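Incident review: delayed structure delivery

Summary: a single-chain prediction request sat in the queue longer than the usual turnaround. Root cause was a stuck worker, restarted by the on-call engineer. No data loss occurred. The affected request and its eventual output are reproduced below so the record is complete for anyone auditing the incident later.

Affected input:
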Amino acid sequence: MENLREGILLGCGNPLLDISAGVDDDFLKKYGLKPDNAILAEEQHNLFIPNSWRNTKPSLLPNSLRVCQWMLQKPNCAIFFGCVGDDKYSKILEDKARSDGVNVQYQYTQEEPTGTCGVLITGTHRSLCANLAAANLFTIDHIEKPENKKLLQSAEYFYISGFFLTVSPPSIMEVAKHSHTHNRTFMMNLSAPFITQFFKDPLMKALPYVDLLFGNETEAEAFAQEQGWETKDMKEIGKLMVQLPKENVQKPRIVIITQGSSPVLLFRDEDTIEEFPVKLLPREEIVDTNGAGDAFVGGFLSQYVQKKSLETCIKAGIFAARCIIKRSGCTFEGKPDFEA
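Output delivered after worker restart:
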């Protein structure tokens, strides 16, 4: 870990408190929800919160930086920016994130409570319904504070959740352009199909600065549809993603598409596709798939910031995702036994 130092990785996203509840398929249909999908809460979704979650204990929303820190076992390598309310939920979020080694630097607001996310579990599937609340009020002012600007200038790697496109595109562009100007590495996750569908404009403005793009197969398919690409073939979609316009042409874009239990696809240029098999877990060992995608990214980042090979990074991502889906929620314990 000779390449590691505090603040090497900076992430921006929506700090939300997870509230999980087991439901059935009829419940999802009633509220227009789908398994293994993520949406922003609308007015009708607020109706089921009191009934489903009144007695449910909140837990921390999956976060790639938490998993990254767990894999690294060295605190404060990762910094996180996001907006929360001044309430007990933000205290829970901060205490948990810091105990997991993440240096959280929240923007606080009095206007909204800390955001929450309903995680509706049907068997091994999950449907996410997020009420952003305070998370929606993040502003570029927070990044421009002298103490936070110093953190920005010190970081070598930047990771933006696609969900943050719904909140503060100006902040994303500030980080993206800074990364480009200083020849750092700017990474983004598509995060959910609705991001590519309803937040296409800010996504496409940021994309030329993206050096490394993550997405799963449903997100990649939705992205392709919005681009007018007449294919659902993941290999074709990945090749087209790599070729999209890029500001720093000296640093070719890398695209990684995960496919659940199917191989992870790595694209480094339009002609090279690499596949990495995912070892199947016995069904009885799968407890909760919520957070698997975040865990993959976290595992990947833990090796990437150490300048390990992309093969090692992807294997670490697969390892982390396998660990997470064996447990309820995005949780972990002990030290990871990952070997490159």
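Verification: The mean pLDDT is 88.
Action items: add queue-age alerting; document worker restart procedure.
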